[in-house]
Amino acid sequence: MVDLDISPPEELTVSLWRSLLLNVIDRVAPERLPPLELTSKPVAVGILFGDLLELPWYRTVFSNLSDVISTDTLPPLQLESRPVDVGELFGDQLNHGWWYTLLGSIRDRLAPEKLPPLQLTSRPIPAFGADASLRILDWSSLISTQKVFLPDAPREAQSPTASVQQPAPPEPVAAPRRPDLLAARLQMMRDLGRTKFRRRIWIGLAAAEAVFLIVALFKFV
Questions:
Q1: 162 domain residue, yes or no
Q2: Kindly report the CA angle at 101 between 99 and 107, in degrees rounded to 5?
Q3: Among 34, 96, 102, 132, which residue is least crowded by beta carbons within 10 Å?
Q4: How far is C-alpha 75 from the geometric centre of its chain's CA atoms?
Q5: Is a pLDDT exceeding 80 seen at residue 35?
């Protein structure tokens, strides 16, 4: 296993002035590296796509004509890996007619394919009626260790005086009414009544205008 280092690079901790000085030094006196030595054999990939886009139109026309008249003879493809049988592709299944799918469904219904028994490597979890409703599994069914019952917390001993019935608290005395609050409440109720009356008037006017427009539309049209 390779130890992965996901820590941030050291360049992030360099101060601004030090980074600026290093960039100036690299610009003025860059480091002289030895010439690059290629140990692998380059592969001829032909003309690059970017260079192909930069070619003039007449060169591409002649190239297309030459490809049509005398195509390049390529060597036969040699497969070095062993092909895996994946069955019929999904695209080929969609191209079949409806009768093919009907016959396949009848065949699977009458003589289903016999598969080997499933080998489970983990302990199955009880479903608790998951076919009818979804429920949260108990932790006792998910944990394979032995159950541990902890003792209950000790209760505090009640003193004999605590069992004596306490006298009922005295009823709160009603605060005296203030005339200014009562006047403010009456004024607020009056304003709410006027607001409701205005709202009814505006709704009635809007309804009358809508009825007039509908009648005029059917009358003059």
A1: no
A2: 100
A3: 34
A4: 47
A5: yes
* CA dist., res. 135 & res. 63, Å (int): 68
- Whole-angstrom Cα distance, residue 218 to residue 197? 32
Query: Is residue 215 in some structural domain?
Result: yes
pTM > 0.85: yes or no: no
Provide the number of structural domains found in the chain: 1
H/E stretch holding 30: none
Mean pLDDT of 183-205: 88
Supply 90's token pair: 């999904």
- Termini Cα distance of the chain: 86
In the structure encoding, which two tokens stand for residue 74, read together?
């390529």
Q: Which domain holds residue 217?
A: 187-221
Residue type, 85: D
Distance CA 213, CA 218 (A): 9
Q: What is the pLDDT of residues 45-80, one digit of tens each?
A: 878 888 888 888 888 888 888 888 888 888 888 888
Give yes or no for a contact between 63 and 51, defined as CB atoms under 8 angstroms apart: no
∠ CA 173-174-179, rounded to 5°: 145
Q: Which of 130, 131, 148, 152 is nearest to 139 (CA)?
A: 148
Residue 198 counted as domain residue: yes
Is 91 within a domain? no
Q: State how far the Cα of 38 lies from the Cα of 155, in Å rounded to an integer.
A: 82
